[in-house]
From TrEMBL:
GO terms for biological process: D-amino acid catabolic process. The keyword Transmembrane helix applies. The keyword Oxidoreductase applies. Residues 10-351 form the FAD dependent oxidoreductase domain. Its cofactor is FAD. Gene3D superfamilies: D-Amino Acid Oxidase, subunit A, domain 2, NAD(P)-binding Rossmann-like Domain. This is FAD dependent oxidoreductase domain-containing protein. The chain crosses the membrane at residues 543-564. Belongs to the DAMOX/DASOX family. One of its GO terms (molecular function) is FAD binding. PROSITE patterns: DAO (PS00677). One of its GO terms (cellular component) is cytoplasm. It comes from Ganoderma boninense.
Amino acid sequence: MSSKSSQTQVIVLGAGVIGLTVAHVLSENGRYKIKVVARDTHQDLDSQAFSSPWAGANWSPMGKLSERTYGWEKATFNKLWDMIPSGLVLASPSKIFYEEGADLDGLWYKDLVRDFRVLDSSELSGTQQRGVGFQTVSVCPDHYLPWLAKELQSRGVEFVRHKVASIGEAAALAGPNGVLINATGLGARSLLGLEDKDVYPVRGQTVVIDNPNVRRPMAAGGDVTYIIPRPWPNASGFTTILGGKYQEGNWDTSFSAADAQGILDRCAKLVPAIKDKDTKILKHNVGLRPARKGGPRVEAEWLDIPCETEWITTEEGSAASRPAGKVLVVHAYGFGSAGYQMSWGAAKEVGSLVNSGLNLSNDWPSSTGSTILPGFRAPQAKENAPVSVAQPRNRTIDDEYGDSATGALPVYVKHWVQGAECNGCAISLNTAKLFRGTWHGTATPPNEESIPTITLRFTGVAIYVYNVLANRVPSADFSTDTRLTFTLDGAADGHFEHEATDSTDFVFNHLVYGHSGLANGGHVLVIEAVPGSLIIIQEPSSFLADFSFAIVVVNLLFIIDLLIDLFTDVGARRTVFNNFICMFRSISIYNALHDVSGEFEDRCEFLGLQW
């Protein structure tokens, strides 16, 4: 067992079945200090933004993608089979029905499952033409996920509830010598710095019933029809889940009565007892499977993280910092319907990638004679890349002091107050944590027609907006919820909402907006404070927010990594009114217009980083 001082920090981003299983595998090795960071955890089993609680969670053949995924399924099946005595896993005889002409002798899974056999004609009825039977396993997410979490906590794994918006933010938590496990599921599509557009949702809907006569798993092709018994009883008996729907690209998480009726009708054709008058419908589930074109992504890479974030503070008050450099990132997402049945096998491969990766230098060898471990992806060179690459340069646009190169200021419209002149403000900020110690403030009443805005004109190719959020304010009884909208080049480009917690701590550097891949030219970003805020300073026309800006400059012709920071100090707490306090603390935009490297050194000194 390694001492705590010698343990490597591992951040597992995501607390679904993949993230928790990876953490479980890694926790078997005493060399890792593990922290699971997630917006939704095992305590949020009713969250529709969380995929794992809504899964059928049984082992059912879905098609052999490759020898690699077959290995994951085999390892997972065997692991779950060994867990049957624990009571967490239910073993039961299963049947799957196929259309006439199906090659039952060539089924890829027949040597994996237990007691595989081809059904005889006496076991078929109605439209059923061919079928197979075998012993399979299933778990109940409502019990299985909390069990995994409890196991991890008993091993010293820490859970942090925090919504991470970028790879850079997560890497700050891992630290320069740490490891980041990206198990974000559907979140991989919107995670800034990753933004994997091959990730897409598959809508599913199921019905949970209570009927002791429906206790055998069955499935039929075509309409995605399945029956899955749960291993854990409720107060009146065992439950069974009926499904389902498989709607690719559908983000709708609302309940459909028509879908529910269709599920009940199709399942009743397999098991007529479902229509018994004693059948109780306990719950309707709707969830989104985290699928990916090309299948799951399980691979490691060294990720360049520029000088991006000074610190990250979570709702629990923990903080982290890191210098610029490379971070070992192991991706594990995109499992679609197969998360549970691939979990243990995929997690073991992730563990192998972590172990192997930590034996590599942080500097990749040259392409000549280099060796990349299986599952590792080397950084890709840009096509026709120049011999020399321009280095980042910095200029600041401060809310009070203006653009260091041109003197230009962001444009504030309606009711803005400079922070130093904000007498009687209910929120007091530590100016040492604000860039150049300055801020501006504004807010709007619920029916305010003239919305306070900030307009920033810039030349660059990407922009990211970070917030410093205020939660509960002991000295004032008003809302600290925050709502912002963003418009880029005249088009609506997203919004941000924050509901305050009971913590009195500020949450620094929370990413609320990002847009990369912009054309190399001039752009206009407009940030609006949404109407509905409660006035929180003495003057009835004055409101609170903090703004200061910093711009990172780079030669756009040769840009490799794009980074823009907009730190936003946003404060206020909710009561009967919605109050939106916007404290924007700094923006960084890659720009090709100025060469002021000295100021980049100044900013890195402010951030406590090396340049």
